[in-house]
Amino acid sequence: MQRLIALSAIVLSMIQGTGLCHADGPRPEHGLHYTSPATVWDEAMPLGNGLLGALVWGDGKPLRISLDRTDLWDLRPVPEYESPDYSYKTMRQWVKEGRIRDLHRLYDDPYGNPGPTKIPAGRIELTFGQEAVFKDASLDLAKANAEMRLGDGIVARVFVHAAEPLGVIRVATSKPLAVTLMAPPFAGKITEEAGANKISAGDLATLRYAAPVEQRGQTWAGYLQKGWGGFSFAVALVWRQSDSGWLGVWSIATSKESNDPLATARARCEKAVEQGFEALTAEHERWWASYWDRTAISVPNAVIERQWYLETYKFGSAARANTPPITLQGPWTADDMKIPPWKGDYHHDLNTQLSYWPAYSGNRLEGAEGYVRWLWDTRENARDWTKRFFDLPGLNVPMTADLEQNQIGGWHQYTHSATTAAWLAHHFWLHGRYSMDRQFIAERAYPWFKDAAVFLEAVTAEKGSDGKRTLPLSSSPEINDNRLDAWFPSITNYDLALIRWTFERTAELADLLGEEQQSRRWRKALAEMPDLAIDVDGRKLLVAKDYPLRASHRHFSHLMAIHPLGMIRWENGPAEQAIIKASLADLDRLGTKQWCGYSFSWLANLAARARDGEKAEQALEIFSRAFCLRNGFHCNGDQTDKGYSDFRYRPFTLEGNFAAAAGLQEMLLQSYSGTIRVFPAVPASWRDASFKGLRAEGAFIVSAERKSGSVQSIEIMAEVGGTLRLENPFGDRYVVTGVEASDVKTQGADLLVDMQPGQKVTFIRG
Questions:
Q1: Residues 121 and 261 in one domain
Q2: How crowded is residue 591: how many other Cβ atoms within 10 Å of its Cβ?
Q3: Which of 169, 172, 532, 628 is deepest in the core (most CB within 10 A)?
Q4: Other C-beta atoms within 10 Å of 732: how many?
Q5: pLDDT for the residue numbered 15
Q6: What is the CATH number of the domain that holds 425?
Q7: What does the pLDDT read at residue 11?
Q8: Which residues contact 108 (CB under 8 A, 6 or more apart)?
């Protein structure tokens, strides 16, 4: 018989006073500490507030601050996509005829055009005297500021204001310094042919903008830069010098918010300078204190713990509810006089999706809100593209897109995938499940799902000889690159998992909202789809029917059904466990030679779902040590000589970073199956671990502590109420507070509690 003891208020107070979770916020060792200067932009210390971003680097001769704003874009259309041949019908015909050069010419090659592309904002350079020799630099995660210490007692502190469109620079020196505000070289000399390599589309000058209009006074400088199609932006820097030091404030404004962007930016800066450094700092630090107070983790692997804090910091710097979502580089566009790597765009084959994985269990829904809001606000452009290219009803989304969700091209197999809107629907699902916001589910999630399902129903209308629906053109990112055989003769597991999952989830939402006819429609479509392709002997998931993964590859898209979709679950017993184990063993067999950094991050999530804490830990440690630059940026290629990957290239992208944070969270807390599980996939060596304020599906906020190899305490707060289902890690020896003992029910290995909004329940090992 299980023992449930309701503690008295006095005893409860004693327990709460000691703290049920020893995890705290970021410590100094979690931040960045440089004893040698960053001499390249991608090793800089990152700052941001979702709208503005800055990179702090250099040695003081000069101190460089690279500037960015996330809605600075060249949005010129792609002329090739106005061709009458630009259509799904033509693509199908040319694939059938094997016209690969024509396919590349019309669908792939336009990605080499200079635009559309994300564009940088410029740079501030501060130059000090000869005595200002670099000593060290640091990034304080708790306060979100970068500090550089130089000889002659000079200390420069830089932050991007957490709540205002401002950047702040404070230099402790009474001596004069040289201030330079530099516009990007849009009107510079072209030194290479546009499209000369796949990572960059060439010099910024290939965009062919006019030179900026510069203005300068005694205590301010600024410029107005005209871009494509009447768009313009302005950067202003205003400063004050006193005996105690130099204060500078910068801002960026655009023609979309003001008829006079330079005046707008300058006015913001002047107001802030009058406000003063202390007041600006106090408001900024209050925001970050609140941010860090929400969640914390403590694990015995210092490398992984530190990386999680770096990622959580970067997420707070890059994702907000009311700013554009995270691109490949987020608010840190390249400062190398080139068009950004891969145009700094939105890649929906995994990059944007992985960037938001940590938002949900990490209890950062406001950051994820910015993503789904943007998807919703731009859906009409995507819907128009769906009609124009596919000539079908419903909604699909281009896999590579600009700020307004317009197609910008790339390998045609993936940029014109039929299942991108379904991939993105997953985030509407997660947002709904983790928030339990009924209005969001009814007015945003379900309409998105229904529109995506309408399109999938139409695009799979043709049936094969087995009577099952087919997808005329099916691929799996980025298997066989952009060769003709990247199109598979049968539907891939990547496409199939997304289609089956979308039909099933749409039916569930229809049931929830009382639309019985719609539910029947989508369950019928689901029944008409083929089953996932599974190797009969090895039980592993295949890329497609009769096509196993044949070599090491960076994408794990054929495993979507395991993670993130959760269609194949460890909790469902031996048969599905065998599929999971065999599929992961296949990755081990093929090796990591063709993996990028994000592959290791994704593997950590997969391993956590397989309850393999050792594999998850190893993947995260390799990611942190071999695939991150010294500022924590995920740099795609292996930066060591340990043979983890044959890729060596450098440009950073953020999806690997954020997927790594999600991987650690999956090790600590899982709820995707409807049951909350704490520490479900931690290594046996993690005898002590804790977390505070993580979020579970159902809108439950969870804190837990593990000591000496056993779960000691779990505290759960019901944000909106409902039935809590918790896997019992205590056996029959625990005490419970916050509810009556009789309110705790058992069902198999789970504890069930009906909770009211705001109610807390605490379980403590007895």
A1: yes
A2: 13
A3: 169
A4: 11
A5: 39
A6: 1.50.10.10
A7: 36
A8: 409, 410, 411, 412, 482
- What's the chain's average pLDDT? 94
619 with 708, same domain? no
Q: How many helices (H) and strands (E) does the chain have?
A: 20, 29
Amino acid at position 695, single letter: R
In tens, the pLDDT along 206-229 reads: 999 999 999 999 999 999 999 999
Give Dmax (Cα) for the chain.
84
Distance CA 606, CA 563 (A): 6
d(CA 492, CA 544): 4
- Percentage, residues of the chain above pLDDT 90: 92
Q: 74 has which bridge partners?
A: 117
Neighbours of 589 (CB within 10 A): 10
Beta strands in 561-699 (DSSP E): 669-670, 677-678, 689-696
pLDDT of residue 752: 98
Q: Indicate whether 622 and 557 sit together in one domain.
A: yes
Using CA atoms, how far residue 384 sits from 78, 392, 393, 557, 568, in Å, is 15, 10, 10, 27, 34
Same domain as 712, residue 563: no
Shared domain for 700 and 756, answered yes or no, is yes
Q: Is residue 84 part of a domain?
A: no
At 136, is the secondary structure helix, strand, or coil? strand
Going from the C-alpha of 246 to that of each of 73, 162, 171, the distances in angstroms are 32, 21, 5
Do 164 and 272 have their domain in common? Answer: yes
634 and 489 inside one domain: no
Measured CA to CA, the distance from residue 610 to residue 416 in angstroms comes to: 32
**Residue spans of the chain under pLDDT 50:** 1-19, 194-197
> Domain of 550?
308-319+536-665
Structure-block tokens of residue 511:
């049931």
Domain tally, the chain: 4
Question: What is the residue type of 510?
Answer: A
H-type helices in 513-668, by residue range?
A: 516-527, 574-590, 597-609, 613-626, 655-668
Question: Is residue 498 within 8 Å of 419, Cβ to Cβ?
Answer: yes
Q: Is 470 exposed, middle or buried (CB count within 10 Å of its CB: 0-12, 13-18, 19+)?
A: middle
DSSP E strands in 378-449: the ranges are 400-401
Residue ending a domain, choose from 607, 634, 665: 665
Percent share of the chain, pLDDT over 70:
96
Same domain flag for 144 and 285: yes
pLDDT reported for residue 298:
98
Local structure of 692: helix, strand or coil = strand
